[in-house]
Specification:
- The protein is of the alpha/beta class and 470 residues long.
- It is built from 16 helices and 14 strands.
- It has helices spanning 19-28, 56-62, 73-85, 97-108, 122-130, 158-168, 192-204, 216-226, 235-244, 270-283, 294-306, 310-329, 347-350, 360-372, 381-384, 408-423, and strands spanning 43-44, 90-94, 114-117, 134-137, 176-179, 209-212, 248-252, 263-267, 342-346, 374-375, 377-379, 396-400, 431-435, 446-449.
- The protein has a five-stranded mixed sheet, with helices on both faces.
- The longest helix has 20 residues, at 310-329.
- The chain binds ligand P70.
- Residues 47, 49, 96-98, 121-124, 179, 183, 212, 214, 252, 254, 263 line the site of ligand P70.
- Ligand P70 is lined by residues 47, 49, 96-98, 121-124, 179, 183, 212, 214, 252, 254, 263.
Amino acid sequence: MLPPPYKIKVVEPIALAPAQRRRRAIIEAGFNTFLLHADDVFVDLLTDSGTGALSQEQRAAMELGDESYAGSRSFFRLEQAMRDVYGWRHLVPTHQGRGAEHLLSRALVRPGQLVPSNLYFTTSREHAELAGAVWVDVSIPEASDPESRHPFKGNIDVGKLRRLIVDAGREQIAFVRQEACLNMAGGQPFSLENLRAVRALTRELDVPFFLDGTRASENALFVKEREPGNEHRTVAEILREIASLADGAVFSSKKDHFVPIGGFAATDLEGVARRMRELVVVYEGFPHYGGMAGHDMEALAQGIREAADEETVRAYVGQARYLGARLEELGIPIVVPVGAHAVFLDAKRFLPQVPQAQFPAQALAAAIYVAGGVRTMERGIVSGQHGTDPYHGLELVRLTIPRRVYTREHLDYVAEVVERVHAQREDVPGLEMIYEPKELRFFQARFEPLQPFPAFELSESPEPELVPAG
Ligand code: P70
């Protein structure tokens, strides 16, 4: 495989905080990696959101930002890029993905209506529910099985969706949502065949169908690699077909559009676009900038074009695959197949001694930080439990790869750190939650360990040799 199609021009220094400092830092952060100071983090795999490296073309475009309040040239360039790559008619810009989710939910949901979706995403579900909807999971069962090698775990169970719509009645459905590279299942794609079936069904039964198009680029590459008949098509062509199969989409552009901030909703439905434009002035800003500055829109317009560049997408997906292969070699339990943007550790198998009520993924993420300054994210019961409903779902730690940021040496180091924790996994205790925020609790919840937390002293494995810069 060829190396990535870019070289590094600007660098940002990072340093491994001493072991003592890391121990103190995780205690101060309430054993929640979201609450660590970035300066205490060495390799930051918290998220691929807003953490990608801009290209020189994006930086140059930012100089052209038109900061006019209304009628900004930058908005029209953004709209053109979206139309060229995806093809929808209307674009409503927002500050980031959840701004678009808010507008879409407010435009489409009447209280009591249902939103069927493949699994859920935290903010998407929150906004649908705040608008009065009831979220219904119509993912295929393989999505929730970390050991199933199904190539398209992002598929929707079309039979289940049909029964749901028919039983509830079409006027009870706000919209159907399908997420690209299904985040909570491990970054798993849908197939074009499945998307076509969902499109046909939603047409037949006359319900709006929207994508969460975040990470659609990587989804398009998986279609090319795994779905027979697509091997000779370009990622750009597949991306365009994906978009053509839905009434519109919401995007968090902080992922595959390579921007630190930004997002949008796009649609062909006139009425929905009009309603979102009415709402955007209340919550985000004038429809010609949403929550973005003119220079943000310039960076985004260029980022959308780069998101359709096959070699860029291939290099990115290759990094997750590389880290996943290293971890599998080491016998570490991960979600298979490796998805788009991250490797997910299966905390239920990694820490079988910690019951799910004691937050094994949260404890494992804390342990990985303490062991080597690597920051990851809990994606288990803390993120997924809904109110007081029982939760027996996936219990994962996400090692998320920022785009165009880290080298293979960084990924090798991460694998070493995870191996070190794995060697001492029996010493990792469960946690107790001592502060639980009312909304999206995973962001700011605080924990205490139920037994002393191991130091992961490096006695038997010496401090790894740092690779010199350059
Ligand atoms: C992540 C980020 C954001 C996201 C997403 C999908 C499929 C919408 C959004 C919202 C950031 C994040 C957000 C909530 C909890 C944890 C992390 N995902 N749809 O790291 O977009 O963040 O721009 O408002 O993945 O996965 P935005």
